[in-house]
UniProtKB/TrEMBL annotation:
Originating species: Bordetella genomosp. 5
Keywords: DNA-binding, Transcription, Transcription regulation
InterPro entries on file: LTTR, LysR_HTH_N, LysR_subst-bd, WH-like_DNA-bd_sf, WH_DNA-bd_sf
SUPFAM superfamilies (alphabetical): Periplasmic binding protein-like II (SSF53850), Winged helix' DNA-binding domain (SSF46785)
The keyword Lipid biosynthesis is assigned to this record: no
Pfam families: HTH_1, LysR_substrate
Family the UniProt entry places it in: Belongs to the LysR transcriptional regulatory family.
Protein name: HTH lysR-type domain-containing protein
Domain HTH lysR-type: residue ranges: 4-61
Endpoints of the signal sequence: none
GO molecular function: DNA binding; DNA-binding transcription factor activity
Length: 318
């Protein structure tokens, strides 16, 4: 096998991430035909077919899956070597904040990649609600931050900066799998006159017991949570009667309450976990918007470490 080429490996990784040659082209600043040529040359060097092309995109072959793992490690080491030769090796502490709505199973690979790329960096990771992450970043208590923002159903996202958006996910009405809430799917159950029918609770695991049986049992985070504010807003505007049935301080607690069958919650699709499914009565509820996950933009005067790690975070999720 001929020596592997870094540019071809970089293009191959971009195609694997983007799902097609066409989508990968702008990521590596090449034309679609140039991307195709680089993949062809890489397959010749590897002596293996790496991609299967179809109408909906590309699929990695078993050989492609194996090479992709090597490609990511080779590219990360090449980036690290280049930075060290330029005197930009990162050392010291870096404080990284991530919203707890982000997919938990995707945070570990990110941290592993950062450790591989910057072995001298000591990460201090904080997982918290988006409003707390944003506030801590604004106070200078975090160096790099990933937060969630909600957009209205059908609305354009004028606030988005494409340079920092990591992904968009639909918001979904969720409930416990196989749970019968007694209000399944009948719009007449949710009589007009939306709003809570019991005093709101603010502590972790607190529950409103004085809630009408004819109202939607809503599970949510504390009042400062932007997603809770959005959820209650869409229910009120639609005239849906609801009661806050359970309040928790974190997404993990919300997932446990859903799985236990305590009610319905609005969450991003990526926050679904075992025992949680789209609620079968969601047709009676208003349409939901999108959750936008983004790296918070650079601040004036930040050091090289923050900028490089932020760029690495963005690159990892694209």
């Amino acid at each position: 096998m001929s020596q592997l080429d870094l540019d071809q490996l970089r293009t191959f990784a971009a195609v694997a991430d983007a799902g097609s040659l066409t989508a990968a082209a702008p990521r590596v600043f090449l034309s679609q035909s140039s991307v195709s040529e680089q993949i062809r040359k890489l397959e010749e060097r590897a002596g293996q077919v790496l991609l299967r092309r179809g109408k909906t995109g590309v699929v990695l072959t078993p050989a492609g899956v194996r090479l992709l793992d090597y490609a990511r490690r080779i590219l990360a080491l090449a980036e690290q070597a280049q930075r060290e030769m330029r005197g930009l090796a990162l050392e010291g502490d870096l404080r990284l904040g991530i919203t707890d709505y982000f997919r938990p199973n995707e945070i570990s690979p990110l941290l592993a990649r950062l450790k591989l790329t910057y072995p001298g960096l000591r990460l201090r990771v904080e997982i918290a609600k988006s409003d707390l992450v944003r506030a801590a970043y604004a106070r200078g208590e975090l160096d790099v931050a990933v937060a969630m923002r909600v957009t209205e159903a059908g609305a354009s996202d004028a606030a988005a900066d494409p340079a920092w958006v990591l992904r968009r996910e639909p918001l979904v009405w969720l409930a416990g799998e196989g749970v019968d809430l007694g209000v399944a799917g009948d719009p007449e159950v949710f009589a007009a006159g939306g709003g809570t029918s019991g005093p709101d609770a603010s502590g972790a695991g607190a529950s409103d017991v004085d809630m009408s049986a004819a109202s939607l049992p809503l599970l949510c985070l504390t009042e400062s949570c932007s997603l809770r504010q959005y959820t209650e807003g869409v229910l009120r505007r639609a005239g849906v009667a609801y009661g806050v049935a359970h309040v928790t301080t974190g997404v993990a607690g919300l997932q446990m309450a859903l799985a236990a069958g305590l009610g319905v919650a609005c969450l991003n699709r990526g926050a679904m976990s075992d025992g949680i499914v789209p609620w079968r009565g969601a047709g009676a509820l208003p349409a939901l918007g999108m959750a936008v996950f983004e790296a918070l933009p650079p601040r004036a005067g930040e050091d090289a470490r923050a900028g490089q790690v932020r760029d690495a975070v963005v690159a990892h999720f694209r």
